[in-house]
Amino acid sequence: MFSILRVNTVTGETRKETDNSKEVLLGGRTLSSRMVSKEIPAQCDPLGRQNKLFFCSGALAGTTASSCHRLSIGAKSPLTGGIKESNAGGILALRMAQQDLRCIVLEDAPAEDADWKIVVIGKDKTELVDGSFLEGKGVYEKSDLLTEKFGKRAGCVTIGPAAEKRLLASGLACSDPHGVCSRYAGRGGLGAVLASKRIIAMVVLDDAKIKPEYVDKDSFKQGAKKLITLLQENPVASKFTKYGTAAMVDICQALKVLPTRNFKHGTMEGAEKINAQTMYDTIKERGGEGRTQHACMPGCVIQCSNVYPEKDGTILCSPIEYETMALMGSNLCLTDLDAIAVMNRIANDAGVDTLDCGAAIGVAMEAGLAEFGDAKAAIRMMEEIRDATPLGRILGSGVKLAAKILGVRHAPHVLGQALPAYEPRGTKGMAMTYLSTPMGADHTFGFTLRDEEDPTTKEGKVALSKKFQVIGSRMDAMGMCNFVRYSVRDDMTPLLDLIKARYDVVITEEEFDDFVRETLRLEHQFNVDAGITAADYRFAETFYEEAQPETGEKIDITDAETAEARTW
User: Are 199 and 117 in contact (CB under 8 A)?
Assistant: First the structure.
């Protein structure tokens, strides 16, 4: 039986439920999206009392399997107006498993002037305690204060000052293995949802340490070793081990899909100054606290994360991911890794999504508020977001709103969520994925780029996107790191065998994919019920009218084709 803990954020009342269904066993996005669909009225105010937050661990959380401690967080998104699952690494899912929790649900919402509270979950009780001492502070200071109060090993999730002001690009910062809240569920504005409940942090204590029980411990150990071998031998996963996601800079530059100058171009002059090799060499040269490899969760053998140091070797930012390097780098025509790292750190401290804020700054530059390539101006805009100035509030509310207010037509988003770091006119497979995800533009939803023989044609891209929507969703469905998909994309048996050895529950590949497809159907139906129409699943008109200079391509995907890609 799996435990679900419900916390009423108004009364402090808590109750535990148990459930032994397979959807609860799998956890992850399988569970979060189904609970959103069942329990949240689709047309409700995302910042009102009827919205809920679901924190869901995955099927293998708490075990020794590699890369299994992703946390899926579900709610109705204030940014997109539809269903949202945003996930993060860190230790929170592990601590939940050690408290024998598959899901934590935060319900209701107090008055807007209610005191800030912290949800504290331990083996003996769950309670709401005073959180006013965290108000107005940055995420890094909040992280230190939470560690001081609850211990370095506690699993924490908190919000930054941007979420306290309910900015729509605000995310949720989760504890990494070192006790720092630096692992972000950044997309969809879920930080604002937590703030609407007057919860400034949630803490899962390290006081239970319930160990998983295995039906067949020897088989599980053998299966866990097999998974490690598969990850280490896979050429894609192993490349991420050395260079992290920054390896995508050179790949996207070569394919002419590196977003540049507010997504007007697909290549940037000087891209080699911010690529993986440059970052790797810089970290090695500076030494100190810098790390070219870093695990975002315990037991991960991929270790694709990094710690980027100052010139004196002290930590400047951890991590810097490709998506940020593109949206806050090439998209703004910045060729200075230090400037990108500073912007990333400010974003982390303010508690905002680097993608939506980077895209919003790109729009601001196109509007003439600064020149492309002006690093000082870009950093200043991030400081305005942190300080919640009038301009900062606009930029921190996402690219769609910023573009409308600043009068920029070329707004890179779908469903109000900023495009990830792949210029869509040069990769029609990724474009199809952006246009068919119920979550807003999302590259992890169905990553086609590596399998597109001709990225510039739309032929066959409906089928390709749908294929990888299933493959990508498999990982989210059970709380696994998305990079595991490269090792099990054609054969899920290694993961399903681990589930059998852990629980003595047999799930076939066909049954597992049926779970995935049914989850997709529920997600799309939620959006329909929320009032999102086919007309919302489009790029800005300029992407259809103006050719990308490097490829000569425009978006030529029709509404009928995107509707097919959304049909399950």
Answer: yes
Q: What is the DSSP letter of 175?
A: E
- Within 13 Å of residue 480, how many CA atoms lie on the same side as its CB? 31
> At residue 336, what are phi and psi to the nearest 5 degrees?
-115, 110
Q: What is the CATH number of the domain that holds 36?
A: 3.60.9.10
Round to whole Å and give the CA distance between 254 and 547: 18
DSSP state of 551: T
The DSSP H or E segment spanning 121 is: strand 117-121
Residue 542, CA distances (Å) to 122, 356, 443, 546 in order:
52, 19, 21, 6
DSSP string, 201-262: EEEE-SS--PPPP-SSHHHHHHHHHHHHHHHHH-HHHHHHHHHGGGGHHHHHHHHT---BTT
Q: Which two tokens stand for residue 59?
A: 């099927």
- Whether 553 has a pLDDT exceeding 80, the answer reads yes
Q: Is residue 432 part of a domain?
A: no
What are the tens digits of pLDDT across the range 425-454?
999 999 999 999 999 999 999 999 999 999
Decide if 105 contacts 93 (C-beta within 8 A).
no
* CA distances (Å), origin 83, targets 49, 86, 142, 438: 16, 10, 28, 7
Summarize the confidence of residues 541-560 as an average pLDDT. Answer: 98
**Under 8 Å between Cβ of 319 and 296:** yes
> Do 351 and 173 form a contact (C-beta atoms < 8 A)?
yes
Beta-carbon neighbour count of residue 239 at 10 Å?
16
List the beta strands (DSSP E) in 245-329: 291-294, 305-309, 315-317
* Euclidean distance between CA atoms 194 and 172, whole angstroms: 8
CA distance 248 to 450: 11
Token look-up 């054969």 returns 491
Taking residues 63-91, report their average pLDDT: 96
Say how many domains are in the chain. 1
* CB contact at 8 A, 416 and 80: yes
**Residue 178: C-alpha distances to residues 5, 133, 249, 351 (Å):** 26, 22, 28, 19
Residue with tokens 């070192």: 178
Range of the domain at 117: 2-204
Is residue 293 a contact partner of residue 465, using CB atoms and an 8 Å limit? no
Nearest to residue 465, comparing CAs of 445, 481, 479, 439? 445
Q: What is the mean pLDDT of residues 3-22?
A: 97
Residue at 369 is within a domain: no
CA–CA separation, 449 and 444 (whole Å)? 11
Question: Quick one: pLDDT at residue 365?
Answer: 98
C-alpha to C-alpha distance for 137 and 168, rounded to whole angstroms: 18
Closest residue by Cα to residue 397 from 73, 51, 78: 78
Whether 404 maps to a domain, the answer reads no
Q: So what's the pLDDT on residue 216?
A: 97
CA 72/CA 257 separation, integer angstroms: 29
| Neighbour-count burial for 154-178, b at 16+ CB within 10 Å, e otherwise | bbbbbbbbbbbbbbbbbbbbbbbbe
Residue 57, domain member (yes or no)? yes
